[in-house]
Amino acid sequence: MAARGSSLPKTHAKEAFCLSEKDLETLSPRLKANPRARKSGPPMKLYNQDELQALAVAKFGTLEAVEAERDRRLAVREQRAEAKLQREAGSAVNSPPPAISAVLTPFREASWAAPAGACVLYWMRTAVRAEENPALDVARAAAAARGARLVVAAFLLTAHPYPTARRWAFWLEGLRDAQRELRRQGDDLLVFLEGHTKSCVPSAGGGISHPGAHPKPPADAPLAGGWAALAGLAARAALVVTDESPVPPDAGWLETLGAGLGGGTALWAVDAACTLPMRLVARSAVDKAWKFRSASELPRKARMLNCPYGGAGGGSEGGDAAAGEGGAAEAQVLPPLGDLGWEPLDLQGADIGALVQGCIGVDQEVPPVSHIHGGTREGNARWQAFLHSGLDQYANRRNNAMLRDGVSRLSAHLHTGMVSPFRVARDAMAAKSYGAGKFVDEFLTWREVAYAFCFHHSAHLETLQVVPQWARNTLERHAADPRPLVTPAQLETGATGDALWDAMQQQLVLTGELHNNSRMTWGKAFIGWAPPAEALAALIRCNHRFALDGCGPCSYGGILWCFGLFDTAKAPESTPVYGSLRQRPTAGLIKRLNAARYLALAVTPHVPTPAQAARAVEAGAAAKRGAGQPTLQQLFSKAAKKQRT
């Protein structure tokens, strides 16, 4: 509940204290201008928290009874939401249980009965981890429930619009960790690296086969080898499970794969990125952070209380638990996978730099960086170091771009799913410092509103169609305003003549990172150099090509913020070029961010202390679950028992 003496708006007051409109009529609220419509809208009604609490206690008897009633209503609301989702989704593969359906988007449905020898394929994309991974756990549970083999595979496709050596090296480092951990758990990870992986001649028979059309590659794919390998493996499966990723190119690839699969193969996308699944957030709540915060706070709390991760011992993903409940053991006695038609990469001990250097179709002009590496091990080590040495000072240090470690620097690991967002959220929430509170708000509000926004606007994220109408109007009115001419080459090399902006761009090119506070100023500058649509395209390219966290929902959220998303008008309409958009001129940063000092800022690899390394290993291990928390395997088993009875 809110702090004593504070005020709550009517909706929050009713939810927090289980009061009705009629109950509130006995109180005298304070009136405040409505932030949604300050000039024309009705005022907000704010109720005193102490008065609300007294009224609720009078109604229910005790404060404990009020809290019990609130928890009961939350549970009912969650059950109704999940029931609605299941009705909308239909009976996808015999209706998975509600706790799973809430994170699952069924793109294709199929019969539960698997053809003899058919497998369950988990296509690992943006949850590159073997711990606390709902997509992996759903695939494991579905395979166990069907008595089918689980196949886990990852495909690095040069049809990706930004297949840089930097991105590929980071991804492969993450896949190496995931492959090692999956093998420890009794499974494996098949890795296809397009431009490198060798093709094999398949044998005449044997192995797993599943009749069905092979999906066609995307129309713009320059190389078809990786897509053909993915399509061939998917065609053998009774069910394909993958990570929900509502951004280009992932969203389009998923639709293409689903459209080409045979009728006997189901396709599920699982949200492994958000504490409150994207699909549970209403479209109307994703255009403003305060709306999202209000709409997500209570349902997120209910979900996290019942999260199957993070119990005593550090939390796990169901890796060992799933294997212990039959997932890996059964797979050993099922028919072998047979010939794939390609040779999977063994990344253990591999020279990843040499692998990437030898890849056809990879952009070698953006090389890997040496100060940050992919993988769950490094990601967890970074998080443990920040949790114990930086989180409590986050609120005071986060806006100083000269303090590289004033922020967690986990964005690349979170974007690729190499670090569990569930672990980060619960660790930060347990810290209970002022800095931790600010971090939690940034992590749960600003990060997850970007994911939810992308989920609801996936098809138009690279257009101005998704920004608010007022922003589109002002951008259109000023599209023809005079601007200095800046070429793409000047932008990418940081040679525009604006010393501070050039330093930020060169830092991004050099390191693959850009401090978020600097990034907002950096992104806004594009509008001053090109008409709106061209500025958006140039900003997307510069961000996605060089940033290790590029191409993700948070990148799209930040990029579109520069064009008015999540924001309101902040300047007179007559302002040249920017109109009523918020401005962030580099001149405003000069006093606290000297260009020469910023460009010379040292970049050193993250080297955890022995204690931090030990904590990271412990945190990253497949550990015990919390008492009373159901595994996804158990949820599937319970659902199957209900269906049989």
TrEMBL record:
Renumbered residue ranges of the record's region Disordered: 625-645
Annotated InterPro entries: Crypto/Photolyase_FAD-like_sf, Crypto/Photolyase_N_sf, DNA-bd_dom_put_sf, DNA_photolyase_N, Photolyase_Class-2, Rossmann-like_a/b/a_fold, XPA_sf
UniProt domain Photolyase/cryptochrome alpha/beta: residue ranges: 118-278
GO cellular component: nucleus
Superkingdom, natural source: Eukaryota
Keywords in alphabetical order: Nucleus, Zinc
GO BP terms, alphabetized: photoreactive repair
Organism (species): Elliptochloris bilobata
Protein name: Photolyase/cryptochrome alpha/beta domain-containing protein
SUPFAM superfamilies given in the database record: Cryptochrome/photolyase FAD-binding domain, Cryptochrome/photolyase, N-terminal domain, Putative DNA-binding domain
Subcellular location: Nucleus
GO molecular function annotation: deoxyribodipyrimidine photo-lyase activity
Tagged with keyword NAD: no
Signal peptide: none
